[in-house]
Each structure stands twice: as structure tokens, then as C-alpha cells.
């Protein structure tokens, strides 16, 4: 494993942004940009991440960023990749679409699906903070079961989140991975791999990003929350290269239910889950069991 | 109906296409003024200070704002540190203490230097 002292020290998002104190998304952004490096063009639709780019004539970003419309994260990336190719410069730059969960699971889904089907050449990052945070915590189809949001204010969300990873897998991507803001080194290596697989269509990484105001926990616990999601087995860390799945070292032991922390460790510290009773917690436990069952099945198939 | 002013329209279109941002530290101003508590290092407990080697630096790793340096000792950039306390939570030896701002000496100075985009 690479030591902390060996990762690049250069920052590509400079301090003093307008994101909330303790924002998990900013931590993930910081580390992903380190991995992508100088020769990167990032495109961002409306989201907290676009606010991070600055609202006037200044930006904390050291790399070129194209701000696009809410539904066009992937289509703008398609355009950028196409333009680079037309100029014969596709090998000199990495195009990255950095999109929220709302922009991915909901409004930007068809643009992403179309780009994936065409095999457009870019890295697509879904920075999943599990709701429309930038506009004040409205539910998205990535919000988990039971989560209270401003549009599911009393009983919480009645549906479990959309299985976006399965949808993306159905496109037959060259590279897919899950990551969490609490594991920057794992995230760094995945972004590097996705970058290296240039010319192999859309590479999709989904990062779970903890959000203090959206999830409702103390800012100091942001990394802890994103880590608990992994330690409870809720957010498995894996990558799938040309259809072959491997568990990531950082989270591989949680395939064993005995090693997992109880899901209530993740749920109870968060205000959005405060109202959940035992029956709802069982829904969560079943969900986690189901997620791992699918992974186990896939592992068995690849190892045959 | 007002006639179209094509020259003006072209000028506007060019302005929009040429709109660009300048990279800066402190895009949102001195975000250090957001703090109510500040991280303070207790050197005797810090692993990198004790060993004199870059063995830990988890504070640098996990700070969303990039306001901890990867140096020995780690140094906080109080101009922009938002005081979230993640560094203190993640420190394996509790070598970072979060101290209320009003007890910290240079609070008034930070506020006096607060600025927005225009000053960046
Ligand atoms: C077509 C359109 N509809 C609605 C909006 C308003 N809007 C801006 S950001 C946003 C939420 C973004 O949510 P998500 O993609 O999850 O990103 P987050 O802010 O959570 O990082 C919405 C609804 C918009 N900009 N454009
Ligand atoms: S609302 Fe959440 S995701 Fe958005 S800046 Fe704040 S902490 Fe980050
Ligand atoms: S308190 Fe938060 S912003 Fe300040 S140095 Fe620590 S982790 Fe960074
Ligand atoms: Mg979101």
C-alpha cells in the first residue's frame, strides 16, 4: 500500500470554498482531482459541486471546469470528448463528468445511458450524497429507505434507492467502482485506474459522500459517517473491470456478516433516520443482506 | 417591434463565450471566520512530531478544506480552516484539540481580515 506521505501534495481545489464545513463531497472532490491531475477537464451540472466552483469571477479549481445544465453532465462530457477527438488531442486530456446523485439517478440518466451506449470517452463520477442537497435536501431516487428529506418530511422515504449500479452494469462498461469519502486512498487509486483506461468508453465511479446538514449529524463526524456506511456493510467497496468484480481491500472483510457493525451504528446518529422503528431497521438489514448476496453470486461466477 | 441589433448580439455572445474565472485561494472569502472552534495541536501527542518522520498525517489526509499541511509538525491555515473538527476526530492519538474561538488569541484579527471575492 502507498504511504500517506507518497500521495501528491498539490491541491487542485484550493482552501476557502463555499461548501459547508465538514463536507464529505469536498473531501472526495479533493482526492479525485489529485488523482486526475493537471491534464483534466471537469464538467459539472447544477449541484453543490458546481457551487464549489465559485459563483463569480473566481474559482478554487486549478483545472478547467465547464458548468452545464442539470440534465447534461454526461452529454457535456460527450461533447468535450468529441471535440478533443476531432482535434486529435484525446490522449492529452482526461474528461471527467462530476455529477450529483440527482443529476445521475434522476434528471441526467438518459444522457448518461446514451453516452455509455455510444462508448464516449470519459470518466463519470456520481458524487452521491443521497438527496438534492444544493437546493435544500429534497429526496432523489438515490435517497435511502426511511430517510427524511424536505419532500419526505414526516414518515421518511417509502421506497428503497434505485439500483443505479445495476443499471450501469447493464451497459457493459469497461470500468465501474464504488467508493466512499472516508477512504481517500482507495478513491485515489480508483480514479487513477479510470483515468488510465482512456479510450475504453465511459468509466463509472460512484462515491458515497457524507453531508452534515442533509444527513443531520455533527460536522466533526463526516468521515466517521461515510466510514460507518462501509463498516456496517451498507456500502460495499468494489470495482468491476471488464465485467470481473473484485472487492476493494479497504472493505473486503465486510463480506463476512460477523465483521460488520450493526446498521443502527450508521442510522441512529443521523437525524434523517431518528424516527425509524424496528420494522424499518429490518428493511435495512434485508437490503444489506441482499446487496452482499448479489456480490457473492457474482464472485462465485467469476471464480468458476 | 424593435429591430435586431446583430452587432450587439454578437458582442454579448462573445462576452459569454469568453467568460472565465481566475483561480484563487479563498473563493468564498476568509472562511476561517466561519469557525466557532479551532483545531490546536498538542505536539507531545502527535505521532509525526514524536517520531520526527511522516508516519501519520491523517489530519492532512482527511481535511476536506486542505487547511492542514503535511509537515512536521502539521500546521493549520486559520485563514481558511472552517473548524469542522474532522482532523481532531480522525487523529489516532487525540493530538488535536478543538478550542472555542473566543479563547483563541487571534480571533479578532481573523475577523478584521475577513473578505469576499473582491479581496481575493
Ligand atoms: C432543469 C433544472 N431543474 C432544477 C434545477 C435546480 N437544481 C439545482 S441543483 C439541484 C439539486 C442537485 O442535486 P444533486 O444532483 O443530488 O447534487 P447535490 O447538490 O446533492 O450535490 C436542483 C434541483 C436546475 N438547476 N435545473
Ligand atoms: S449541503 Fe452537503 S454536500 Fe452540499 S456543500 Fe453542504 S455538506 Fe456538502
Ligand atoms: S477543523 Fe476541519 S477545516 Fe480545520 S483543519 Fe481540521 S479538518 Fe480542516
Ligand atoms: Mg445529491
Number of helices of chain B: 5
Helix residue percentage of chain A: 25-40%
Strand content of chain A: 5-15%
Low-confidence stretches of chain A: none
Please indicate the count of domains of chain A.
1
Number of beta strands of chain B: 3
**Can you give the mean pLDDT of chain B?**
88
Looking at the overall shape, the CATH architecture of chain B is 2-Layer Sandwich
Give the name of the CATH superfamily of chain A: Thiamin diphosphate (ThDP)-binding fold, Pyr/PP domains
Biggest interface pair, counts: A-B, 37 and 41 residues
Q: What characteristic shape of chain A results from the CA principal axes?
A: globular
The 3D shape of chain B can be described as elongated
Strand order of the largest sheet of chain A: 3-1-4-5-7-6-8-9
By CATH, the topology of chain A is Rossmann fold
- Name the average pLDDT of chain A: 97
Strand order of the largest sheet of chain B: 2-3
Number of strands of chain A: 9
What is the annotated CATH architecture of chain A? 3-Layer(aba) Sandwich
